[in-house]
Amino acid sequence: MTLQRTALEKIRLNPFDIFSKEWGLLTVGSAESYNTMTIAWGQFGFMWNKNVITVVVRPQRYTFEFIEKHPRFTVSFFGDKMRDALKLCGSKSGRDINKIAEAGLTPRVSEEGIFFEEASLVFCAETIYKSRSEYESFTNKNIPDEIYPKRDYHHWYTGEITTVLTSNES
Ligand SMILES: Cc1cc2nc3c(=O)[nH]c(=O)nc-3n(C[C@H](O)[C@H](O)[C@H](O)COP(=O)(O)O)c2cc1C
Predict the structure, then answer these.
(1) pLDDT-derived band of residue 168, with 50, 70 and 90 as boundaries?
(2) pTM (2 decimals)?
(3) By alpha-carbon position, which residue is closest to atom 7 of ligand 1?
């Protein structure tokens, strides 16, 4: 199975299901040091005349240290495959174990980011905007009360999509 560059215009996906049901792996770093974690919250869209993907990261994640430092990130989606790998990468920290090896994932390092051979769809992005959720900005206070009892508000990273890769099996 190989990943090939695909024009964004050719991609057909349900932006709701792909995050909430399929989940993805957010991967950030350099060839020397990188990390990945499972994400289920995010957005696709068109902003500032650019095709974008937005991910949200809580500050205690190891991945947070990478996304704060590095200008690019990738999000790999796997269809209905690699569920156990996604569960592992969403429950263990890269601070504690080599979860990429334990999850049986094969990283591919490219100039546009680090992603996984096993993915069926990969978005490579360059961060163009970042912000942080804050209590005052929620017009529905039930959300921060329920989602952030520890006040560990997500940081938001919007990336311009630079490359899309699809597997020849998808
Ligand atoms: C299905 C699922 C979705 C998740 N989505 C997010 C998310 O969108 N943002 C986030 O900060 N953490 C999310 N997490 C939690 C991180 O994946 C988890 O804390 C992970 O162990 C962090 O790894 P790290 O410390 O190596 O960065 C999710 C976990 C699961 C299982």
Answers:
(1) confident
(2) 0.98
(3) 39
CA 4 – CA 1 distance, rounded (Å): 10
State which ligand 1 atom lies nearest to the alpha carbon of 86: 31
Full domain range(s) for residue 40: 3-164
Is residue 58, in this structure, part of any structural domain at all? yes
* CATH code for the domain of 71: 2.30.110.10
Report the nearest atom of ligand 1 relative to the CA of 63: 27
Structure tokens at 45: 């869209």
The pLDDT tens digits of the residues spanning 4-48 come to: 999 999 999 999 999 999 999 999 999 999 999 999 999 999 999
Is 68 part of any domain? yes
Q: Domain count of the chain?
A: 1
Task: Tell me if 159 CB under 6 Å of ligand 1.
Answer: no
Evaluate whether residue 85 is within a structural domain.
Answer: yes
- Which protein residue has the closest C-alpha to ligand 1 atom 11? 57
* Radius of gyration of the chain, Cα coordinates, nearest whole angstrom: 16
For residue 88, the surrounding DSSP H or E stretch is helix 83-89
